[in-house]
Amino acid sequence: MKRIKHRQQSLSQCLEQVIVNHIGPNYRQFYLLARQWESLVGMDIAAHVTPAWFRKDTLWLYVDSSVWMQEISFAKASLIPKVNDCLESIIIKDIRCLQHPQESRLVPEKITIPNRAINRKEEQSFRQMTENIPDPKCGQALFKLWQAFQTKGR
């Protein structure tokens, strides 16, 4: 069996090959644009505007707010030549904006529920009920469960 010799490559070379061969050359162009975005537009704009995707001859940008959308519409004429100079094989003729999707905050903050005082008469009557359980450990566990529900109010 013949062994194939592989020459070592850097990770960036491998990534570039994967992107070009499997995803497409436009994504490579997009990657290059995204890497150089801050130097193209400046720190102020780059903090609020990011490249989203290419579609035909249009570059779509994510913006933080409608204010930045308007700012990009004013800067479009000077921005298109800068973007085209950065790209190798794609020519951008238009720039469009859309508001960046909101970050989802699905995990709510933990709310602590203050403990409530347990009514002593109710506690005593529940203890009497659990005394009739044949397994004492089971009765104690049931009482602790009842106690937890009473203090948390659930």
- What is the annotated CATH architecture of the largest domain? 2-Layer Sandwich
Name of the CATH class of the largest domain: Alpha Beta
How far apart are the termini?
Answer: 71 Å
Order the strands across the largest sheet as they lie in space: 1-2-3
Assembly state here? Answer: single chain
- How do the helices and strands follow one another from N- to C-terminus? HHHEEHEHH
Indicate the mean pLDDT.
79
Instruction: Please tally the helical runs, counting DSSP H or I stretches of 4 or more residues.
Output: 6
Indicate the proportion of strand residues.
5-15%
Main sheet record: 3 strands, mixed
Structural class: alpha+beta
CATH topology of the largest domain: GMP Synthetase, Chain A, domain 3
Rg, nearest Å: 32 Å
- Total separate domains: 2
Low-confidence spans: pLDDT under 50, at least 5 residues? Answer: none
Work out the number of β strands. Answer: 3
Helicity level: 40-55%
User: Shape, please?
Assistant: elongated
In CATH, the homologous superfamily of the largest domain goes by the name K homology (KH) domain
Notes on the structure:
By secondary structure, this protein is an alpha+beta fold. It has two domains: 12-99, 2-Layer Sandwich (GMP Synthetase, Chain A, domain 3); 120-152, no CATH class. The chain has helices at 11-23, 25-41, 43-46, 66-86, 120-131, 136-152; strands spanning 49-55, 58-63, 94-99. A three-stranded mixed sheet has the order 1-2-3. α1 (11-23) crosses α2 (25-41). The longest helix is centred in the middle third of the chain and has 21 residues, at 66-86. The radius of gyration is 32 Å and the shape is elongated. 6% of the residues are buried.
